[in-house]
Design goal:
This protein is of the alpha/beta class. It has 14 helices and 13 strands. The chain has a domain of 115 residues: Helicase, Ruva Protein, domain 3 (Orthogonal Bundle), CATH 1.10.8.
């Protein structure tokens, strides 16, 4: 099998996963694609959305599409303790020794619901898992299963009794997005499908865990032109100089933008990243890593947050102009060779 044919088969496998998840999460292909791009890039996702927008269904559909994958849900409350997440050692009187009982973090797809309702010490228990794919409990470090993706949600409306995520934790999410409500026709379809039961019960597995590993490996082989890589860095660095910004995006922002762009290209069936990919992914990957001044936040909310973020992206593009129009053809040619 040629290298090109091998890539086509791998890319087709990624699209099959996307199509399968979309059979239960209707009308949200773009958003599902974003989440899967983060998964394939080895990252985690923050969904800021109102209740009832299929966040739990999405997490279960991803796990249900992969044979052998496990899923868990952590419902965050102010009394949730770190050991409720990571697990703890329990004394076994028969064996006269302590036995570690793993917490819900030990799963392939973990949904952390309303993460901002957990106390800061519990939120921090997730940092090691998200950054290093491992958990240290009772002095012992234990690896998490592979693949491992954490999908966290927060409600943007109800703020009472919540604890804002610290910048260090926000920085560990590859991207932040929202599913939003489905369109009218999609909502009618959802009603029809759930007359006799939930479609998740009939979801087919289309990948194995080995396939998931192969997809992640394929992402690393997607070509990123040196010119494009330099532009990614300049775009992220531009956020550190903008008016209304206290702290710009970190180096993790540059890393995540490149890696998610690679995964996005794979889901599009391309062996190379284009400037369009980078520009399209800039906001969901970078914005949540920026600390804005209180004045900017107040002004942006008065206008409209989405419009303010688009204006921010335009400002970054002015400071770091997009590479020449001939780059797409040159990148495609380089990827072939």
């Amino acid at each position: 099998m040629s290298q090109e044919a091998g890539f086509e088969r791998t890319s087709a496998l990624a699209v099959t996963l996307l199509d399968n998840v979309e059979t239960v999460v209707h009308g949200k292909r773009e958003e599902v694609k974003l989440v899967l791009a983060a998964l394939l890039a080895g990252g985690h996702v923050l969904l800021e959305d109102v209740p009832g927008t299929a966040k739990t269904v999405l997490a279960r559909a991803i796990a249900g599409s992969i044979e052998g994958a496990t899923t868990s849900r952590i419902q965050c409350t102010p009394d949730l303790q770190p050991t409720d997440v990571t697990g703890l050692a329990v004394y076994d009187p028969r064996e006269r020794e302590f036995e570690f009982r793993p917490g819900p973090i030990f799963a392939n797809v973990v949904l952390v619901d309303e993460i901002n309702r957990a106390m800061p010490k519990t939120q921090s228990a997730l940092l090691e898992a998200m950054a290093e794919g491992q958990v240290t409990a009772d002095g012992t470090t234990r690896p998490l299963p592979e693949p491992f993706v954490l999908i966290a949600t927060e409600n943007p409306i109800e703020q009472e009794g919540t604890f804002p995520l610290p910048e260090a934790q926000l920085d560990r999410f590859f991207l932040k997005t929202a599913l939003g409500y489905p369109g009218e026709e999609d909502e009618i379809l959802i009603l029809q499908e759930q007359v006799a039961g939930h479609p998740l019960t009939g979801l087919e597995t289309v990948l194995t865990l080995a396939d998931a590993d192969r997809l992640r490996a394929a992402v690393t082989r997607v070509y990123v032109d040196p010119v494009l890589r330099r532009w990614i860095v300049r775009l992220v660095r531009a956020t550190r100089t903008l008016e209304g910004v206290d702290v710009g995006a970190s180096v993790r922002g540059s890393l995540a933008l490149e890696r998610v762009a690679r995964a996005w290209a794979l889901l599009d069936g391309r062996e190379y990243v284009t400037p369009v990919d980078v520009e399209h992914l800039f906001l969901p990957v970078v914005v949540h890593r920026i600390v804005f001044t209180p004045g900017f936040v107040a002004e942006a909310r008065e206008q409209r947050w989405a419009a303010a973020m688009e204006s921010l992206r335009d400002s970054c593009l002015e400071l770091a102009p997009r590479p020449g129009d001939d780059l797409d053809e040159r990148v495609a040619a380089a990827a072939v060779h």
